[in-house]
Write a structure and sequence with these properties.
The protein is rod-shaped. By secondary structure, it is mainly alpha-helical. The chain has helices at 7-72, 80-94, 100-118, 127-192, 195-198.
């Protein structure tokens, strides 16, 4: 075997090492992009979906209390403090990343709670008036149900995006390992293969 590298061998080894360097660099940049995508989706699942589920839960409790008041005392007992709390929750909801459908339902929800709040602490005379306000509460609950379904769908979509990024990242890592093995073997062959074998004389 020839222990010394010829100029051609050195050029080939340098080329292979440069190829390995750019392969690792490119793989690292792709990995960082995928990890950034995963980080953003995890943040979005918490900030735009899990937190919103809590908003919906609180709003549903307000509706339940109002419904119990109508059925019990015949009054819509919404205090100014509670009205401010509802407005604050709706404002926080609006600050999250909304889909087009979600924005439409949120706008409807604002109108429904505003209509409910305008009748605050008023007496409801007659069974017809009670039925009307209870129907309004039921309609508001259906809007909350629709918003809750969107949270579940969007959470599933974001989870799929994260899983896809992870699977691509795993595939690229396996390809990188394979390329590194091939490049390592190529370097060994270039370094220790006899010159006549590499460059036969015609």
């Amino acid at each position: 075997m020839n222990a010394k590298l010829t100029l051609k061998q050195r050029i080939l080894v340098g080329f292979v090492l440069a190829l390995a360097f750019f392969l690792v660099l490119g793989s690292n940049l792709v990995d960082r992009r995928h990890f950034s995508t995963i980080h953003k989706t995890i943040e979005s699942i918490h900030d735009d979906r899990v937190v919103v589920q809590d908003y919906i839960y609180q709003l549903r409790n307000f509706l339940h209390d109002t419904e119990m008041g109508v059925l019990g005392t015949g009054k819509i007992a919404i205090s100014n403090e509670r009205d401010k709390q509802i407005t604050a929750i709706l404002d926080d909801f609006a600050e999250t990343e909304l889909t087009r459908e979600e924005a439409t339902f949120l706008k409807r929800l604002r109108q429904q709670f505003s209509s409910l709040g305008s009748n605050s602490s008023s007496s409801l005379r007659g069974q017809g008036a009670k039925s009307k306000i209870l129907e309004h509460i039921h309609s508001t609950k259906k809007t909350l149900d629709a918003l809750e379904e969107i949270q579940i769908e969007e959470s599933g979509h974001l989870t799929q995006v994260s899983e896809k990024s992870l699977s691509v990242n795993r595939m690229l890592s396996n390809l990188e390992i394979g390329f590194m093995i091939v490049l390592g073997v190529s370097i060994l062959m270039l370094a220790f293969q006899p010159i006549k074998t590499l460059y036969p004389i015609h």
